[in-house]
Amino acid sequence: MKILGVIPARYGSTRFPGKPLVMINGVSMIERVYKQATLASTLSDVVVATDDTRIFDHVHLFGGKVVMTSANHPSGTDRCAEVVRKMSADWDAVVNIQGDEPYIQPEQIDLVASSFQLEECKIATLVKAIDSELDLNNPNIPKVVVGADGRALYFSRRPIPYFSDDKLAGALANGSFFRHIGIYGYRSDTLLRLAKLAPAPLELAESLEQLRWLSHGYSIHVKTTTAENHAVDAPADVVKLERLFGG
Questions:
Q1: What is the pLDDT confidence band of residue 247, given thresholds at 50, 70 and 90?
Q2: How many Å separate Cα 129 from the centre of its chain?
Q3: What's the chain look like in SS3?
Q4: Which pLDDT tens digit goes with each residue over 176-187?
Q5: Region 5-34 average pLDDT
């Protein structure tokens, strides 16, 4: 199976402009993500998808592959779809790798890609158990409930499923809550169809793109990871990562 890893990388960020080019212990964030992605054994190739010449030139400078895409894409999914349309090669599937996780584990990428061993899998993503009430109540951490068949039932910024106060501690200890890890895999033909879907009311209410897919009848297969993820959302996160990883 030919699987392409795509790393969407926008220069313009409301909270952290130029984030892909920020240096973390002497190496740019986008270079760190790219090199981590190339270690994934399931990917046939890796490419950065950007809308900015500064990122484009920088990726070329460190020897990476990069595609210039439109500046008008509302999501990384749309940017990935443009890459598939532009590239001459035929890809069975695409993994959308977050460009703000400089220490992403290649095993997580492989875990998503492994979902496509099931012929019926069209979209795949990852979740991780929540063990902190602080994380459970953080609206910036999307939560997900998963059915017995390993497919997502719903995503929300609210804690789901609901447990009464007297049962909450036990539910956390028993692994009843899951956070969504924002890495996606799509069959290539599915990806192109997703990019044409109209926004859905649930998506607009929760500001979660994946609810558009569920609303339009697409199943999302879920795998559980135990690895920690370290995203860069603000300059302070860079300092934390430099202290944590030290190189």
A1: low
A2: 17
A3: CCEEEEEEECCCCCCCCCHHHCEECCEEHHHHHHHHHHCCCCCCEEEEEECCHHHHHHHHHCCCCEEECCCCCCCHHHHHHHHHHHCCCCCCEEEECCCCCCCCCHHHHHHHHHHHHCCCCCEEEEEEECCCHHHHCCCCCCEEEECCCCEEEEEECCCCCCCCHHHHHHHHHCCCCEEEEEEEEEEHHHHHHHCCCCCCHHHHHHCCCHHHHHHCCCCCEEEECCCCCCCCCCHHHHHHHHHHHCC
A4: 999 999 999 999
A5: 91
Q: 160-183 burial, b for 16+ CB within 10 Å, e for fewer?
A: beebeeeebeebbeeebbbbbbbb
Which CATH number belongs to the domain containing residue 211 in this structure? 3.90.550.10
Domain encompassing residue 225: 3-245
| Partners of residue 223 on adjacent β-strands | 126
Number of domains in the chain: 1
Which residues, including other chains, have CB under 8 Å from residue 43's CB and lie 6 or more apart? 3, 4, 5, 37, 95, 109, 113
**Torsion angle, alpha carbons of 152, 156, 158, 160, to 10:** -10
Supply 113's token pair: 């890609």
Residue 149 tokens, joined: 């068949």
Q: Which amino acid is at 243?
A: R
Give residue 236's pLDDT: 86
Average pLDDT over residues 131-148: 95
Give just the sign of the alpha carbon dihedral 108, 109, 112, 117.
negative
The span from the CA of 32 to the CA of 84, in Å, is: 23
